[in-house]
Amino acid sequence: MSKESDLGFHEQTVWRCSCGGELTPHKVAALYLGNRFEIELPACSRCGFILVPESLAVGKMLEVEKILEDK
Amino acid sequence: MERYKLDDFEQRCIQDELPYCQAACPLKVDAKAFCAAMAQKRFDEARKILSKTMPLPDIIGRICDHPCQDACILSQKGGAILIGKLERACLEQTKDTGLPLRLPPKGLSVTIYGGGLSSLTCALELAKKGYQVCMVFNDEIPGGRLLTLAQEVLPQEVLVTAWQNLQRLGVTRSSGKDSIRDCLKEGNVAYVGIDDPEWTHLVDVKDIDPFTYKTSTEGLFAGGYLRSNKPSPSWESADGKRAANSIDRYFQGASLTSGREKEFSLDTKLYTSIEGVPTLSPKDDPIEEAKRCIQCECRCCVRECVFLEKYKGYPKIYVRQIYNNFAIVRGSHSANKMINSCSLCGLCEVLCPNDFSMAELCRFAREEMVERNIMPPSVHEFALLDMEHANSPRSSGFRSGAKTTEAIFFPGCQLSGAMPDQTERVANFLGKMFDGKMGIMLGCCGAPAWWAGRQDKLNEVIKNIEKTVESAGNPTLILACSSCNEVFKNFMPNLSRVSLWQVLLEKGLPETRPATETLALHDPCTTRHEPEWRQSVRKILQILGQPYEELVFGGEATRCCGYGGLQSMADSDLAREGVSRRLQESKNDFLTYCAMCRESLSGSEKTVLHLLDILFPPPAEKKRAGFSKRQQNRELLRVKLLGPCDLAPNPWDDLLISIPDAVREKLEDRHILDSDIRQTLWEASSTGRYLISPDGTRLASSRIGNVAFWVEYREDYHSFTIVNAWSHRMIMELMS
């Protein structure tokens, strides 16, 4: 199951990756309990390290996790 | 959820039962709602409430003999509400709202003998149902006995209007030349209202079935007989109304009795407490009198429980919601949070006049959710992992007595974690008292698994405990925690157990000094049904000379601290609200004898002591230890009391981290442990994968179990200062 969602995070980030790569917006699949969302998150263009910012993790993402858990 | 189980739960909650006044009314007039409307001067609304169940309100409302008043519980508090007077006041303030609706004609006719109130009511009810009604009476207009009432009691024009209205509904009048026998011969149905003195002789009262109003003559119904040798307008009207219902059923060939229990019954199971209700005499002014009505309801449990109050209903409604939660196939299980938020403390059961137990219901529901695999995975995971930690070799273990093992001290995981120094001092003290014949068992009793509905995990823990105790020759367990006691009582009833408090009373108390100030005594909710635990503690306090205050909600009616039933895991705000209300119940500092109660109640400006703080001073820190500290304490205590375990330390165990207080609070709220942080930092250091901000702060991430942790930190000389941390459960995968 793949869905459109507004889970993404589009703000500019100050973080750089320890490998030297820049963090740029990437398409990312967010998976939980058999559900799949396509979202955009900052990720390292060189090594693929994906950043999940705090505001997203404790906000919208937590909300969606709880909704899915109650389904 | 099985249907029978649902019914059993539902029936116990009596909030939906009729108020005393309404139950006593043969017409089942909702006098409570009526009083509420009158108190707010909503007279039209009040009239509507009367009209709903009271046929011909303009007549009955003026002459009602109000059996409701005899049932009103305010008779014990200054006098019953004068409902009869209020009815009259309402009718005088309002106008008839017009003709009731009439169903399409059925083509069936009924003859009604007599013009009394029961006949008038029967005629009205049958006409509304679409029957062709023909009345037989002697006077110019129907009314029977009512025609003899004084004009100021019942103005004649009210009866004239009533008759006009009946005629407009198609009711006709017959000269009554045919005898009843002739009338019934043609397969007709007839009703005789013997409240009209002219027709009393036609039917023998003994021949009337008091529920269905059937007589031994086929097709003949009768009612309107005297009650307690007196005419009763409410009963006359009810007779006519109920007889009309029976006649309707008779025509349809349906049972005259089935499903009519509520219509016939005058009883109610409702319980309303009048404790604290002021004693006030009836008022002359109808509005003021209506305001005196206390709007009877039960809600004994809801009033005293933050959890029951939060969901804005009462147990009966919650039973239904929980049932629906299981019935749902697609969509959200919207009652999940409610089911998991009950502290399982059992106060509702003590307060309920019918012993309704929300704990039993929610525990049952949780077990079923686990069984059906619909329990939200995140809600109890943290607590279950904490239990696993408490039972891991790093925190748990058993040591037999130096000589033999006559008893085993089982402090429980929360006491070991929150108050390790006191636990150690108690262990040493008991060791001496038992002269080297006391063993020690560290670990968790399995209560979190029980509360989470995880029978599988609970059974695992129980098996291990039983095996250990058996290997030691089944000595008595000395329990310091009443939650452990509850688990032992329910799941290991064969193991002999005693409370630490009783042992201390028997073996002698350590030398100590009481706290000088009076302390409010908070009984843990798991001592609710353990009077011996509670009494032992009070005896100790008396021996020590410790002044203490009994809380109104103490003893059997004590409250939960918010940790019980893992309430704080499902709804931390609710648990906090409960704590805050509990602490407001006394101006004094608090004293308890459960480590989790001490932890949960601490954190405000109030000092919350554990009895062991007094018995084995110096007291533990005033502020709560928290999850991480408790885990570390358990591990240290294990080493102190049982020696180091065989497991090799984790490579990250020695990482030096420093966590400022504000961050610490956030980590506790977010259920992020120091061990999670250390592991994340260690992984970042060993893989060299992390993010860096321009000011040098780093951000590392690691997935541990089902959770991804993020740790923001600064590294200086091999020590890490934690700036922030968060977590999520979703798994992220880079696409393309």
From TrEMBL, chain A:
Residues 14-71 form the DUF7479 domain. This is DUF7479 domain-containing protein. It comes from Acetomicrobium flavidum. The lineage of its organism: Bacteria, Thermotogati, Synergistota, Synergistia, Synergistales.
